[in-house]
Amino acid sequence: MEIKKVSVVGAGVMGMGISQALAQKGFSVTVSDLSKDILERNLGKTQKNLQSLVDREKMTAEEAKEVLTRIRTTTKMQDVTDVDLVIEAVFENIEVKKQVFAELDKLCPAHTILATNTSILSPTEIGSVTKRPDKIIGMHWMNPAPVMKLIEVTAGLGTSEETVEAVMEFSQKVGKTPVRVNEAPGGIVSRILSAMRNAAVDILAEGVASAEDIDTAMKLGANFPMGPLELIDLVGVDIHVINSDNLCRELGDLKYRPHALLRKMVRAGRLGRKSGRGFYDYTK
User: Which of 41, 101, 107, 250, CA to CA, is 20 to 30 A from 256?
Assistant: First the structure.
């Protein structure tokens, strides 16, 4: 099966980032969200991202304009269903995702593949509410989606080989490098990074080093492009806590348990870049 038409459900950071990545490769994409404000706000951020590429001479102004014309936004789920592939990127909550998949299953043609962007939750469980287990798959894009090259393609218990091959081929078509993963909590990247990020928070909470020095040490000593605490701020402190809790529960391994400091930060509204403060102050 060749994937020609694609849409995205969820216009948050990942959903709109995926939409931008697809549009930059020439695909017309419709992205839906319940909130018109979120659609408008994050489409505005996409415009800024493209302008940044123009300013850095990575793209012409005309090319940036063409990319934007390929992204259509809507608040109606039925507008994203007449496609070969739907990529779900809503809030990281199993019940919310199951509701989305149940609705998509009713609205989409029988051939449509339903992909979830999660790396932590189970594609098999998310797809259990549908009548197409063979067309349910995980398609985990890295953040920021237009830049990062990797996509983890996760086969659930009932995912057909045809579906896996179609998504692997499509990932290559949009300029990414796919790796195949058999469903397991966290896949590859999130499972490794979650433990590392939690270790960095432990070191900070114990007073071993400052946030700046921890991140500097990992960037210069391990050649990381971004420090682990900076990465938590980028992902969102609240999202990191949710994902860590899920991994700890699914794997029964305490190295994934988020430190109490992280829960304090969530209660204080210090969620990272999106709130203006996390381990660092982004308001200055």
Answer: 101
